[in-house]
Each structure stands twice: as structure tokens, then as C-alpha cells.
Design brief:
The complex is a heterodimer of chains A (192) and B (299).
Chain A (H helix, E strand, L loop, with lengths): L3 E3 L4 H4 L7 E10 L2 H9 L13 E3 L4 E4 L5 E5 L9 H11 L3 E4 L5 H10 L2 E4 L5 H6 L1 E8 L9 E16 L6 H16 L1
Parallel strand pairs in A: 1-2, 2-3, 3-6, 6-7
Antiparallel strand pairs in A: 2-9, 4-5, 7-9, 8-9
Chain B lengths: L2 H20 L3 H13 L3 H20 L9 E9 L8 H15 L25 E7 L5 E8 L1 H4 L3 E5 L4 H16 L7 E8 L2 H13 L9 H17 L12 E8 L7 E8 L5 E6 L5 E3 L3 H5 L1
Parallel strand pairs in B: 1-2, 5-6
Antiparallel strand pairs in B: 1-3, 3-8, 4-7, 5-7, 8-9
Helix pairs in contact in B: 1-4, 2-3, 6-8
Classes of the chains: A alpha/beta (192), B alpha+beta (299).
The complex binds iron/sulfur cluster.
Chain lengths: 192, 299
């Protein structure tokens, strides 16, 4: 059976998830990447129409198009490298009460600690599968911070069974990509 | 050049550019399907399935298969008898802009240092264009590449001591992919350049990346090294997408040039599972042929 998280996400919904588990998200989701993190963490500015508390963000910079009626829609929206947001994510979680971070690849120690301490998880969406993701966006609800440009703006979406999301950091301080890195490193040492 | 002809020239390159963002080249798609078949680990298989679903959705909906349509790079071989040489630079810039706005592709290009997004993938030195002359030919051979962010990050170039030899080359490549490969959406295309200095090795690695998967260097020792590095990287099992599976690469290509005895330059350029490159010929009457996407355009 599909495990589905719905926003607002309570601690109970995520506390028993473990790295490697596959989940899906239904509810509200906003893209937020490099400049968006700077805005929230350094400039302490929050969006007007999106709630980070018990919410979810997506490390992604989409392609947004306009249909015949001039309404904007998601053309293609895959995840971007989460590691770039490492320096800001722990503060982001602490300051906002965010529960779910979706991105590409893993994140590092500081984020892992923050996930454990404040009850959040990081999930990886399969990188590059951007049309799959766009098809799981039910509605493009709005956009904020358009001054940052299309990839960096905060796009607010209503999503349905958005995924597959692979839990990469859980609430217990486990880190999937960290573990994998050790396995790859061992294989590498055998090669030399 | 007559205006109507000029517009036809722009449209040909524009359509080619858009196509490259929507369909994978035949060799990449075929190898991706093969890797899906070869994969034994269940979770890893699911990831390959997600990629293949993405490919068919992109075709069906006529949308860029990955949102990061990169910075557009054109590699042009200009026949000295091609009649519209003077128009080429402007036509490429216009085609890049039109493809970006009309497909749409993601406007990625930010001006140097200012970080201001130009909104249409053109700017100071963008799209990136490189020219080569082909004496006697009346054709224009146009290759293009979409350099995405994640997949460009592992790229590097280093000059080794000659005594480090083949082992040094392998170690540098394995270490680079180990450190950066998981985030570059593997399975990867790995292009390696062997030359004298950092710059020429880097250029050769890009040339290697532009060569189709499964082709080999014409220099036998280099061709053998391609297979060895491919097998070595595959034994790391980083693909798909860093989650871990049975392989790492779509392919490994090497371009080498005779080098200075005191240096051993190694360049690395990487492409992701969504390696988007196109290859076409435009004839002097502006009729054209697409070489890279014969299969995917059939459907
Ligand atoms: S690495 Fe490739 S597939 Fe992954 S997000 Fe970047 S361009 Fe897309």
C-alpha cells in the first residue's frame, strides 16, 4: 500500500519512517532553492501565502508555461541538488518548523542533526524525472519572489501523491546517502 | 541572404534545439533501457522505470524531459563551401532564444558576476559556440549539448606527473565520480581527455562526451582504457541516482592527444542519465538531416 503524507504534516506522520522507505505527498508544496533559502534564513523574510510550519518544500527550479487561457502551469519540475542548501537548511528547519524537504541526492551532518532535533525528514525525488513530477502537480496555486527569476522563485503547488519520495534522512538521525557513500568508498578502495 | 531563407535557417536550428531537450539521443536511450534490463536490485529497477516513464511522458506531452535544460552549447563544423557562413553566429543565438521562449526551455543563463537572469538563455558569450573549419565541404555539421547544472558539477581537469601513469588517471577519475557522481543523476556518460595541459585535456574530455556511447577511440590502447575505466566505475554501483545499484555509467569515452613528456593532463566531463546532445547536418540548400535521434523521431 502507498504511504501518503498529507499537509499539514504532523510529527506522528513521519516519526516511524526510516531511510530507504518510499512515500508520497498530497497537499501543499512550494519550490525553494538557493536564493529562497537566503531570503528566509538570512533576510528573515517569509512568503505571504505559504505556510512552512508543518509544511513541505521542494528543492527545484521549474519550467513554467502558459496555457491557451494564459493560466500558468508546470511544464517540467525535477529536483535540484539538495547539498547546495546544506549551509542554510538546519536554520531553515529551526526557524520555520518545516517537516519535509524534498530534493536531489542527500544532505549532510547539520541538516541530519536538525531533522532529529526538530522532527523533520529529507526525501529524494528521482533526479531528472521532471515531467513525472509535473504530472503530479494538480494545480499551480501561485508564485512569490518572482524577482529572483523563474528557477529561484517560490512556486506554490497543490500536489497529489507526489513521488516516489525516498526517505534519505529520517527523524532518528540516519542518513541514506551517507551510508551509501561509505559502501561506495569501500568498493573504491578495493579497486586500487 | 534572403530573409525567408534566413528564417528557415533559424527555424531548423530552433527545432533541433527544442528536440534535443525533449528526446534523448538514440544511443543514450538504448543504453538506459539496457541498464534497466540488466539491473537486479528491485529498488534500483524502480528508479530506472521512473526515468523511462519520464521519457515517454516527455515525448507524449512534448515537454523537456528534465527541467534543467542547461546552458546551450553549439559545436559547429563549418564546411568552407557552406554558403551562409557569415550568418551562422547570429542564427545560432536567435535559434537559442526562440527555442527557449517557445518550447519552453528553462531560462538558465545569468550574466557573468552580476547573476542577473537574462530570461532567454542568451547573454554575454551565451549560447556557447565553438567553430571548426572543414575544408572542401559544403555542409554545416551542428552538434549541440545542454549543459545542466548537476551533471556539469563533477567536471574538472588536472595535470598529473607522468610517473603516476595509467593508475593515476584511473584514480583521478574514480575519485571524482565517487565524490560527485551521486548528485549528477547517474548513470553517467563520462568523457575523459588526455593531453598536455589542463585546458586541452578539458577540451578533449568534452569532445569525448559528445561521441556516442559504445563507440571507441581509434587508438587501441586508449580504447582498451575506455573499457577498463567503464568496468571499474561500474563496480562502484552508484547508479541509479546515487541510491545504489549494479552499475554506474552509461558509457566511458576517451579522447587523447600526444602530450609533453613532463606532463599528463587529464580532463573529465560528465553527462547525466538525461544526457541531451544532438547531431545534425545542414546542407547548402538548407535541407537538413538529424543523425542523433533517428529512432526517437520515428514514433
Ligand atoms: S543532472 Fe541531468 S537529469 Fe539531473 S537534474 Fe541535472 S540535467 Fe536533469
Amino acid at each position: 500500500m502507498k504511504k501518503i503524507l498529507t499537509t499539514p504534516i504532523s510529527y506522528d506522520q513521519i516519526k516511524d519512517l526510516r531511510i530507504g522507505d518510499t512515500v508520497y505527498l498530497t497537499g501543499m508544496l512550494a519550490t525553494c532553492r538557493d536564493s529562497g533559502h537566503r531570503r528566509v534564513v538570512k533576510e528573515k523574510i517569509l512568503p505571504e501565502n505559504f505556510e512552512f510550519k508543518d509544511g513541505a518544500i521542494f528543492h527545484a527550479g521549474p519550467i513554467v508555461g502558459k496555457d491557451e487561457n494564459g493560466k500558468q502551469y508546470m511544464v517540467s519540475v525535477g529536483p535540484t541538488t539538495s547539498r547546495r542548501m546544506e549551509s542554510a537548511e538546519a536554520d531553515f528547519i529551526e526557524q520555520t518548523g518545516l517537516r519535509l524537504i524534498i530534493g536531489k541526492g542527500g544532505m549532510l551532518e547539520k541538516t541530519t542533526e536538525a531533522c532529529k532535533k526538530f522532527g523533520a525528514i529529507h526525501c529524494a525525488f528521482p533526479g531528472g524525472c521532471a515531467v513525472v513530477a509535473a504530472q503530479e502537480v494538480e494545480e499551480l496555486v501561485g508564485v512569490e519572489w518572482m524577482d529572483l527569476g523563474m528557477p529561484e522563485a517560490l512556486w506554490i503547488m497543490k500536489v497529489k501523491e507526489f513521488g516516489p519520495l525516498i526517505v534519505s534522512i529520517d527523524t532518528q538521525g540516519n542518513n541514506l546517502f551517507d551510508n551509501n557513500k561509505k559502501i561506495f568508498q569501500e568498493r573504491f578502495e578495493k579497486l586500487l | 541572404m534572403e530573409e525567408a531563407l534566413r528564417q528557415q535557417f533559424v527555424k531548423t536550428v530552433q527545432d533541433f534545439t527544442a528536440m534535443t531537450g525533449i528526446y534523448l539521443p538514440d544511443d543514450v536511450e538504448a543504453r538506459l533501457r539496457e541498464m534497466h534490463q540488466q539491473e537486479k536490485i528491485e529498488n534500483a529497477k524502480t528508479m530506472y522505470e521512473c526515468m523511462l516513464t519520464d521519457l515517454s511522458l516527455a515525448k507524449e506531452l512534448h515537454r523537456p524531459l528534465c527541467q534543467d535544460t542547461g546552458v546551450i552549447q553549439y559545436f559547429v563544423e563549418v564546411g568552407t563551401e557552406f554558403p551562409y557562413q557569415a550568418e551562422i553566429p547570429e542564427v545560432l543565438v536567435e535559434a537559442c532564444r526562440a527555442a527557449t521562449l517557445q518550447t519552453p526551455l528553462r531560462p538558465n543563463v545569468v550574466e557573468p558576476l552580476a547573476e542577473h537572469n537574462t530570461g532567454d538563455n542568451t547573454g554575454y558569450g551565451a549560447p556557447y559556440i565553438e567553430y571548426e573549419l572543414v575544408p572542401g565541404s559544403s555542409d554545416l555539421r551542428l552538434r549541440m549539448y545542454m549543459a545542466g547544472g548537476g551533471c556539469s558539477l563533477p567536471g574538472r581537469s588536472k595535470v598529473l606527473m607522468p610517473l603516476e601513469g595509467v593508475e593515476g588517471i584511473k584514480k583521478f577519475v574514480y575519485q571524482t565520480i565517487l565524490d560527485w557522481g551521486a548528485n549528477a543523476c547517474p548513470p553517467l556518460c563520462v568523457g575523459i581527455g588526455l593531453g598536455t595541459c589542463a585546458a586541452t585535456s578539458a577540451m578533449l574530455s568534452k569532445k569525448a562526451l559528445l561521441r556516442p556511447i559504445g563507440t571507441h577511440s581509434t587508438y587501441p590502447a586508449v580504447a582498451k582504457l575506455e573499457d577498463e575505466i567503464r568496468d571499474g566505475l561500474n563496480s562502484l554501483g552508484i547508479a541509479p541516482l546515487g541510491f545504489g545499484g549494479s552499475q554506474t555509467v552509461l558509457g566511458v569515452n576517451i579522447e587523447a592527444a600526444a602530450h609533453h613528456p613532463a606532463t599528463l593532463g587529464v580532463g573529465i566531463s560528465t553527462g547525466c542519465w538525461a544526457t541531451r546532445r544532438g547531431d545534425m547536418i545542414i546542407h547548402k540548400d538548407l535541407s537538413s538531416e538529424i543523425l542523433s535521434h533517428r529512432k526517437s523521431l520515428e514514433v
